[in-house]
Amino acid sequence: MEYKRILLKLSGEALMGNQQYGIDSDRLEQYAQEIKRVHELGIEIAIVIGGGNIFRGVQAESAGMDRVQGDYMGMLATVINGMALQSALEKAGLYTRLMSGIKMEQVCEPFIRRRAVRHLEKGRIVIFGAGIGNPYFTTDSTASLRAIEIEADVVLKGTRVDGVYTADPEKNPEATRFSNISFQEVYQKGLQVMDMTAFTLCQENKLPIIVFDMNKSGNLVDLIKGQDVGTLIT
User: Fold this and answer.
1) Which structural domain range is residue 26 located in?
2) In the chain, how many domains are there?
3) Which residues, including other chains, have CB under 8 Å from residue 179's CB and lie 6 or more apart?
4) Where residue 140 sits, what CATH number does that domain have?
5) What is the pTM of this model?
6) How far apart are the C-alpha atoms of 158 and 9, rounded to whole Å?
7) At what angle do helices 196-204 and 139-149 cross, to 10 degrees?
8) Which of 201, 195, 210, 183 is nearest to 144 (CA)?
9) In this predicted model, what pLDDT tens digit does every residue of 145-161 receive, in sequence order?
10) Could you tell me whether strands 180-181 and 96-100 are parallel, antiparallel, or unpaired per DSSP bridges?
11) Using an 8 Å Cβ cutoff, are 231 and 177 in contact?
């Protein structure tokens, strides 16, 4: 399949590299180079990044903090990651825009759909921070919603596993990877891909998802070139 515009979903945890928390500059640079290679193929790229390396709203709730407050703190963590990624991409010579679901004019633009599309058309890489600006939604949901809004061809979910498996490959060595699978099968088999809100949004809008290992060098470009990388969900 030919992709013209993609939405890349990165996990915040992946930015930690081998650290316990925070941002690993080597990992950040690696991501920037991978994204640059795809950009050089003429692909329009939007990115949503999680905030789990800095703060997770769900953990805050289990520690007795108000869930809404925790979620907003998590959104701010995604802006910090977005700024770090923006810096790394610009260092690699790319033009970027950071757009936020929460207004903070000194740091980034507010999310305006038409403006985001215009940036993409001009070859800028657009990073969406602060989720959709509302609590109770994950960055997976943000990725699905923004991808639909900007009419992306696919959601690429970069994780530390190289696709969707019959069981958790980190716990079960017998687990096998699906090359492709339908939304329906994922439901029926009870496989964990994204949270249900995000997953249903993609299914209802016929937006394919590819789950792949972002940490393996070259995977992103190979995937774009149509090689059998990760798992395609349609």
Assistant:
1) 5-233
2) 1
3) 163, 228, 231, 232
4) 3.40.1160.10
5) 0.96
6) 6
7) 20
8) 201
9) 999 999 999 999 999 88
10) unpaired
11) yes
Give the separation between CA 199 and CA 125, rounded to whole angstroms. 24
Instruction: Find the Cα–Cα–Cα–Cα dihedral 117, 120, 125, 126, rounded to 10°.
Output: 0
The 3-state DSSP class for residue 155 equals strand
- Whole-angstrom Cα distance, residue 46 to residue 155? 10
Could you tell me the CA-to-CA distances from 107 to 80, 103, 160 in Å, in that order? 10, 9, 30
CA distance 70 to 190: 28
CB-CB contact of 178 with 163 (8 Å): yes
Mean pLDDT of 182-194: 92
59, pLDDT greater than 90: no
Chain-centroid distance of CA 54 in Å reads: 16
- CA dist 169 and 171 (Å) reads 5
